Every structure is written in structure tokens, then in C-alpha cells.
Amino acid sequence: MKVASPLRPGSPARRGALVIMALICAVMMIPGTARADNPIVQTIYTADPAPLVHNGRVYLYTGHDEDGSTYFTMKEWRVWSSADMVNWTDHGSPMSVATFSWASADAWAGQTVYRNGRFYWYVPVKDRASGQMAIGVGVSDSPTGPFTDAIGHPLVRNGEIDPTVFIDDDGQAYLYWGNPNLWYVRLNADMISYSGSPTRIPLTTAGFGTRTGDANRPTLYEEGPWVFKRNGLYYNVFAAKCCSEFIGYSTAPGPTGPWTYRGTVMPTQGSSFTNHPGVIDFNGGSYFFYHNGALPGGGGFTRSVAVEKFSYNADGTIPTMTMTTTGAPQVGTLNPYVRQEAETIAWESGVETEPSSEGGMNVGWIENGDYVKVKGVAFGSGATSFAARVASAASGGRIELHLDSVNGSLVGTCTVPGTGGWQTWTTVTCSVNGATGTHDLYLKYTGGSGYLFNVNWWQFTGGTGDGGDTGGNLLANGDMESGTTGWGTFGGTLSSVTGSAHGGSRALSITGRTASWNGITQDVTAKLTNGKSYTTSVWVRSQSGTPSAKATLAVTADGTTNYIQLTPATVVNTGGWTKLTGTATVSWSGTLTGATFYVETASGTDGFTIDDASFQ
């Protein structure tokens, strides 16, 4: 049982019986198969998933059910992200009830949307003055926060919960929320005020199905709306009936109705009497997020988020889905030759996470036999060494590197020494032999008794990774052969193109630019070292001649963004392609919250194509 240790002053409450049960289950399931991927977070209980696609990643905003809860005891929200739908990075808690000085309790189900270069997180909390549930708005310049109270008071307050926000093609944003009713209001362009008055949507049986056995609730609608648009049709997916809930949905020709009930998305199942939907499209696939009580100790007040991939029917209807333990398939592979955060996890046994003194989060409370699984690691031609950032106030231990199962082929072992403190960091390295091709990687932690060490990040060297990137390239899919994976845009439309690549068969093209700073982007926040010099190389080709292209790094720390030009000179121009290259030192003061590599132009709005980009 994991209990607070005198070696770890200030440790959060341990998971107790939850950890014991998780370890027992892990041992039972190890032989022959890799661990299941659902629920997608195992270090804590999570609920009310709200996914957001931004710059080639899925950001997942959740609530946090406290251990041992017998009610909806929720004090903070959490953020996770993934580029491949299976390996999820823990970004900690960037917002809590305490963010809102006027709120007293209840960090319940919300949603984050992106607009005007900022991220707006709409959440229900209890208003201290009235005692009613109200909708607050957090705001941040980064998808991972920190978030601050955008307006200092409730955006709207009528005692109801579960906000969702949808921005239509014409730019009009709508806030929907409600239990027991369903409301909407038109948000202004600033996203923190609205025009007109809140309007209650008629809950008719034609619009939201027929409930039996409850004279006060004639329709199936219960709570948790999620509104989106696809192929000109508006969808409202919601938690239906109670209790236990299932997920149903309705459609409409416009954002305010009239709604027509279409049926069941996910039937009642999963050990939790509530459920909560989130639907996105990502990298050519459609995904449905939900929660259940599948983790040991789980239930209606200790829930866990999971995800399924699905395809719409030909007529636009949503198929009925059931909960699985295997979850969504991986999108692409993970590149081990760039820095990977230790808290990037497909499955784990025994570990927890905490804020790191070096920024971000680290994995901690590691005991003998604990492990982290990372799925689909592309070692390519073969790794030769492994490095990890570690700290230990005890005597340390070992990181064993196994392939495909926790006791699978051992390709390397790193010894971790005592460093004199749980946040006193050092880097350890060890040789690697036999890591070729693509495998699930298990970082198995071994040693003596008690807590062993913490891990902040890890990285392999010596081989060729996913998409042919060289070992030192911090850019995922730098040769663009995996389509748009890993890449996004600051304005304009991004596409993967063939027939005009600089190398290989694919390149990336941006069209529809309206400003010179519109460009092709990639998030590199987790990959930078403060004060380090980086060399950039990227090939650029314009639709109408060579643009005044440049590669730039936007670095945000403590709320301040600095722009570092990475390519001060054009070095080569051949066959219509211009090679931009340059070296710059990247540094910041305070806590790094966001860093984006992007290719833009000094002037003009011509579309352009890039290929074979590296940042190392």
C-alpha cells in the first residue's frame, strides 16, 4: 500500500486500496498481451471529457474525482494531450475552484474552445453569493494553461450546469448548458459576454426522445450537451435518462433547432451511473470520449475517461458504440529520438505524477516493480543509448527497458543514483541493444524498498525514428511522410500534398493565408532546454515564386511571448525550393508554458509548401 512517506514530505493522499488492486490486475494481465488502453488515464480518477484539436494534438480537459469520493467531490480540472490517441501527456491542473474568487465549490463538467489566439474554458461552479451553480470562464494563451478568471464574475447564473460552446461557420458562438433544462445564448466575439437573453430550448419528445416513469421529466435529455456541426447538420450529443444514464443524440438544421431525436450513441454500461460525451474529428478519424467506473475502486463518484474511434453512417447518423478496454487505435507512431516526457503514458502500474521543479510534470512515487507503458515506439534502424532525467532523495534504483511486455525483451538498464532530493535532477545514460523496429516500450522501475526515484523525461539516441527523422530532430514527422501528423497552422488551411515534394513523396502546403504570420506550426514545448542553441533547416516552395519565408519560434513563459527568428539567411535555392537554415539560442525567464515552431513570411500572403524540416 502506498502511504505518505517521511522521505516524501508534502506527498498527496495515496491511492491505498486502489493501488493494490491495480497492481494485482496488472500482474494478472501481463502474460502474452500488452495492457489495455482504456481508461486512458490511470494515475487519478477523471471525469467529464472535453477534447479539443489544436495544432496537430488532441487536448483533453477533464474533471478530477477525488479518491474515495461518495459524492461529486471535485476541486480542480486537469489537462492531457496526445498526438497519437494512445500515449497521453499529463499537463497537471491549470485551473481549480480557487481560480474563481467568487466560487465556493464544485469543479464540474466544462469545455475549452479556441478563438482569437486564446483558449476559453467554460465551467460550472457554485456561486458563493447566491449558492447557485453558475458558469465561469477561464482564459489562457496556452492550451495547457495556466488559466485565469476572464471576467471576475459568473458569465451566466441560473442554477444549471454542464456548459458546451460551439462556434458556427459564420463566426457566431453559442453557449449551451443545462440540467434539468437545456439553454443557449449567443456569445459575442470576445467570448466572455453575450447578446440577448438566455433562451430555453423546448424539450419535446420529438426533439429529445420519450422518457417513461418520470412525470417531471418527459424527455430523455438529462445533462451534458455537446454540440457540433458536420456536413451542414447540427448535432447535440447528451447524457440521457437517469439513473443510470446512457448517451443519446439529436440533430437539427440550425444551431438552435428544431431538434429531432436520433437514438442511442452509447447504452447504459460501465459501473458509473453518469456518463458524459465529447466528440471530435482528428487526423481523418472520428472519436467519441466518455467516462465509466472501470478502474479499481471506480464507480459513480470515482470515474475514468475513455475513448473509442468510430465512423459515421453514410446518412450522417452516429452508430451505437459500446465501451471497450482496447480503446482507439494509434495514429502513427511515437518517436523515441526526441525528448519524451516521463508523464506521457499509455498505461501505468503504481506510479503517480506531480509538478516538476524543472517545469511540467514528473513521474513519482515509484516503487519496485512499477512501470510505464508507451505504445508504438518507432526505433527504426536501432537505438544505441538511452538517457533519462531523474532525481532521488533515497538510494535510487534502475530503469529497465523492456519491449512489448513488462517482462519482455530487455534492451537496456539504466542505474539511477541518489541525488540528494526528490527534485534534485541529474541525467543518467546507458547503452541499448536490440531496440529496432516498432514496439511497445515498458519502462520498468526496480530497486529496493520504499520510494526509489522520480523521472522527468527520457530520450533514445543512435537510430532513425518515425518517418525517417534523424535522431536529433525535435520535430515529429519532419519529412512530412506521415501527412499532417504533428503539424498545425496559425491561420490558413493545412494539407498534405504529393507530386511536389522536396524529398520522399509528401510535403505540407498552406493556403488561404490572410496575414504574413499565418504559417505551418508544431508544438515543441516539451522538447526545449533553456539556454540551448538549436540549428534549423527547412525547405520552402511558394505557389507563385519564392516567398520571404522564415522559421520562427514563439516562446511563452510567465505570460510573456518572445519571438526568436531561427533562419536569418537563405542558404540554397534549387529547383524552385529554398533552403532556410540558421542557429539561435533559445532562452526564457520563469516557467515555460508554450513553445511553437512555425514557418511564416516576412510579408505577403502567398500560399507555400514546406518539406524536410529539422530543429535540433
From TrEMBL:
<dbReference type="InterPro" id="IPR023296">
    <property type="entry name" value="Glyco_hydro_beta-prop_sf"/>
</dbReference>
<keyword id="KW-0858">Xylan degradation</keyword>
<keyword id="KW-0378">Hydrolase</keyword>
<dbReference type="InterPro" id="IPR006584">
    <property type="entry name" value="Cellulose-bd_IV"/>
</dbReference>
<dbReference type="InterPro" id="IPR003305">
    <property type="entry name" value="CenC_carb-bd"/>
</dbReference>
<dbReference type="GO" id="GO:0045493">
    <property type="term" value="P:xylan catabolic process"/>
</dbReference>
<dbReference type="GO" id="GO:0004553">
    <property type="term" value="F:hydrolase activity, hydrolyzing O-glycosyl compounds"/>
</dbReference>
<protein>
    <submittedName>
        <fullName>Family 43 glycosylhydrolase</fullName>
    </submittedName>
</protein>
<dbReference type="Pfam" id="PF02018">
    <property type="entry name" value="CBM_4_9"/>
</dbReference>
<dbReference type="GO" id="GO:0030246">
    <property type="term" value="F:carbohydrate binding"/>
</dbReference>
<keyword id="KW-0119">Carbohydrate metabolism</keyword>
<keyword id="KW-0326">Glycosidase</keyword>
<comment type="similarity">
    <text>Belongs to the glycosyl hydrolase 43 family.</text>
</comment>
<keyword id="KW-0624">Polysaccharide degradation</keyword>
<keyword id="KW-0732">Signal</keyword>
<dbReference type="InterPro" id="IPR005084">
    <property type="entry name" value="CBM6"/>
</dbReference>
<dbReference type="Pfam" id="PF03422">
    <property type="entry name" value="CBM_6"/>
</dbReference>
<dbReference type="InterPro" id="IPR006710">
    <property type="entry name" value="Glyco_hydro_43"/>
</dbReference>
<dbReference type="InterPro" id="IPR052176">
    <property type="entry name" value="Glycosyl_Hydrlase_43_Enz"/>
</dbReference>
<dbReference type="Pfam" id="PF04616">
    <property type="entry name" value="Glyco_hydro_43"/>
</dbReference>
<dbReference type="InterPro" id="IPR008979">
    <property type="entry name" value="Galactose-bd-like_sf"/>
</dbReference>
